[in-house]
Design brief:
This protein has 439 residues and is α/β, with parallel strands linked by helices. Helices cover 32% and strands 24% of the residues. It is built from 12 helices and 22 strands.
Length: 439
């Protein structure tokens, strides 16, 4: 071993797998960065003096006598207002051609906020998407995933949420994006003139998959800076968490850990929780809200990734293509926001809870009518009306391309009730019917 300017240098690697190198070293810290043969690596396991590092670019071609230089610190991000409007890679280096950011250097991946410092979330986050704002209202400090099939336009939905959401800062953590996806986000933000409040950390399919593991921590370190120091409301968008989990399994499988369900590492729950639990509402007004995308393999919601995610998060938003209208909708039956009752009818109009419940109940009646139709039974007049209503409800309120304010969503709900049903059939409180029912 040699030491130069506080850096420890070793040249004897005892074991090399496809993703990791192991050697004997002293005084090394967890998560510490190193360079192996000029490639960046990070400490993932320490047993006594035996240190295992994951090599971000893969280990191919690294000899056992390669030079291993320990950098003496974990990955860091420089935080300041200069982050706004910029695109970075998984290591926090600019990829938009702009200058390096000046600011205070912070280690990424710190602990989540002490529960004592948290406040009950109570602020509404409006997205302009009625399938969310009307039926599954989001609250600042919430953590919630979109569950979507891989062929659905979830990146477009994320871009829409970024542009429409009423938040001071939007931080995008893109994992495994194609170059087209990356350019799509860049152009949408550019053209909307919204770059000044958006910060992006991007890992593309051309980068090593293992680098994805840094992206959520980079995004959340930036989020904590703006939420804590600036008391700003920050919305963190993470896509695609399935690719993040796949990268976890690559590392753990190559370290010969015994995989658990669906070949995922046994630590999957805590690895995901470490990210999602960063969502917080602070008493002083700052907040971090996390919306993530989890793609489903063949629509399988029981797979280890969505399964574990569902235990950690406060609901989920389920995207599906509605064949009746040929559009992607936020499915009201399979979506759930567990915190919506904290704001609906309190931070929104008084009729919100009743309109929401009635609209979904009538949509369920239409689903029953559809089943009757498919099985060759005769439809009643009521059945026919629910089917006509369901098409309009999907088109005007559930489709992801709907962009209106919450009051307008509620008014649209009332218009659909009036058009297709009698006052008795909707079963809403008389005082609300008197106020909002307009023939």
């Amino acid at each position: 071993m040699a030491t130069k300017a506080f850096q420890k240098i070793y040249t004897k690697i005892s074991k090399i797998t496809k993703a990791t190198c192991t050697l004997k070293a002293e005084g090394i810290g967890n998560d510490e960065l190193a360079e192996i043969d000029g490639r960046l690596a990070q400490v993932v396991k320490i047993i006594g003096e035996e240190v295992t590092l994951q090599v971000f670019g893969g280990t191919e071609g690294i000899p056992t006598n390669a030079e291993v230089v320990f950098i003496g610190k974990a990955p860091t991000l420089k935080v300041s207002d200069q982050l706004a409007g910029r695109f970075f890679d998984a290591f926090g280096h600019p990829i938009d051609g702009g200058p390096e950011v000046e600011g205070e250097e912070r280690e990424i991946g710190g602990p989540s906020v002490n529960p004592v410092r948290r406040k009950q979330p109570s602020e509404l986050i409006a997205t302009g998407i009625a399938g969310i704002d009307l039926n599954n209202t989001l609250v600042s400090g919430q953590k919630i995933p979109f569950f979507a099939d891989p062929d659905q336009p979830y990146n477009q939905v994320m871009a829409m949420v970024a542009l429409r959401a009423k938040a001071d800062k939007i931080i995008l953590g893109g994992m495994g994006l194609t170059n087209d996806d990356y350019l799509y986000f860049k152009n949408v933000f550019d053209n909307a003139g919204a770059l000044d409040r958006i910060i992006s950390f991007v890992n593309t399919t051309e980068n090593p998959p293992v680098e994805r593991l840094l992206v959520p921590d980079m995004a959340l370190t930036a989020a904590e800076y703006f939420a804590v120091e600036k008391n700003e409301s920050v919305l963190v968008l993470l896509t695609d968490m399935t690719l993040f989990a796949d990268a976890l399994s690559i590392v753990s499988n190559r370290m010969d850990q015994i995989p658990s369900k669906d070949s995922m590492p046994g630590s999957l729950y805590s690895d995901l929780a470490k990210i999602y639990e960063k969502a917080v509402q602070f008493p002083d007004g700052g907040s971090i809200t996390i919306i993530a995308v989890t793609t489903l393999s063949g629509g399988d919601i029981t797979h280890a990734i969505p399964d574990n995610t569902g235990y950690i998060t406060e609901g989920q938003l389920f995207l599906r293509r509605d064949t009746d209208i040929g559009k992607v909708i936020v499915d009201p039956f399979r979506s759930l926001s567990r915190l919506k009752q904290l704001v609906i009818g309190k931070k929104t109009r008084e009729d919100h809870p009743q309109v929401m419940n009635t609209a979904v109940r009538l949509f369920a009646d239409a689903a029953n009518a559809k089943t009757k139709l498919e099985n060759g039974f005769d439809l009643t007049d009521y059945d026919e009306r629910t089917l006509a209503y369901a098409k309009e409800y999907s088109n005007k309120l559930l489709a992801i391309d709907v962009n209106i304010g919450t009051d307008e969503m509620l008014d649209t709900g009332w218009e659909l009730f009036v058009k297709h049903f009698s006052k008795e059939e909707v079963g809403i409180k008389q005082e609300l019917v008197d106020k909002y029912w307009k023939n």
